[in-house]
Design brief:
single chain; alpha/beta; six-stranded mixed beta sheet
Length: 262
């Protein structure tokens, strides 16, 4: 059986930090993952990463990661199995190689610059605005952050990255027979607001339409309908990858038969 290939873009939010626990806006502040955050990302990697699982390393062609160490540590813990050392490492720390995908650190998926609101909770921001005589009904998707980025600023950089992904990685493989094309999946490891902005712009909507939640350590999937680059979509639920499972089962059966024959 042949399958028509539709590439995916996996978005992964970094694991839990002390500020993500209590809802403080964390943009430029570089915080480490908590111990629990590391454990949960490890569990996510074991459950979702593998050539018979949701994120198949062999199908990855490129990996984008934020400059922040919390995102980079999350990528390490997912254990993708990159062939080269990660850009921030002095040497490879794992002998397992599962993908030839390149890893790129990009400013385009750094977290939203919260400016004057860095380190504050939403409740504190609204109270501050009330004291300043501003509209306390603050909405980052509409209002942005004084001293930081506006929705237009964020839209510009995520749009640039979306265009790059489609032109460089997805265009060449979408709609082709899977066994005749090159890997085309992309993985992004970054932050809550910027990845939600990326997702809403992926389907061509304005940031004011954003109504998504992406928990710390959470995974989302973006793809296309009808194998068409012109029909970007958010994949709400994906089926298990079974071709490798069936193939491995058949190989095991052959080995057993050969053993019996000997």
């Amino acid at each position: 059986m042949t399958y028509t290939y539709t590439p995916r873009c996996f978005i992964v939010r970094h694991g839990e930090t002390e500020w993500s626990i209590n809802g403080r806006h964390t943009g430029t502040t570089d915080l480490p993952l908590t111990e629990n955050g590391e454990k949960r990302v490890l569990a996510t990697g074991k459950a979702l990463v593998g050539n018979d699982r949701l994120i198949a390393p062999k199908n990855l062609t490129h990996i984008y990661v934020s400059p922040r160490s919390r995102a980079q540590r999350t990528l390490e813990l997912l254990d993708i199995g990159c062939k080269d050392k990660l850009p921030w490492q002095e040497h490879r720390v794992n002998d397992l190689i599962r993908t030839t995908a390149n890893v790129e650190i990009t400013q385009d998926i750094r977290e939203w610059d919260y400016g004057d609101y860095e380190g504050l909770t939403s409740a504190q921001i609204r109270e501050q605005r009330r004291e300043q005589g501003l509209n306390p009904d603050w909405n980052i998707w509409r209002d942005g952050c004084p001293g930081g980025e506006s929705p237009a600023d964020v839209t510009k950089r995520v749009d640039r990255l979306i265009t790059e992904i489609r032109e460089n990685y997805h265009k060449k493989c979408i709609g082709k027979q899977k066994h005749l094309t090159v890997p085309g999946d992309v993985l992004m490891v970054a932050h809550g607001h910027i990845l939600r902005a990326f997702a809403i712009r992926w389907v061509g909507k304005g940031l004011e339409d954003a109504a998504f939640i992406l928990e710390a350590g959470g995974v989302g999937i973006l793809s296309y309908e009808h194998h068409q680059l012109s029909e970007p979509a958010i994949l709400l639920g994906g089926a298990f990858v079974v071709d490798d499972i069936v193939e491995n089962a058949e190989l095991d059966a052959l080995k057993k038969n050969e053993t019996k024959g000997n």
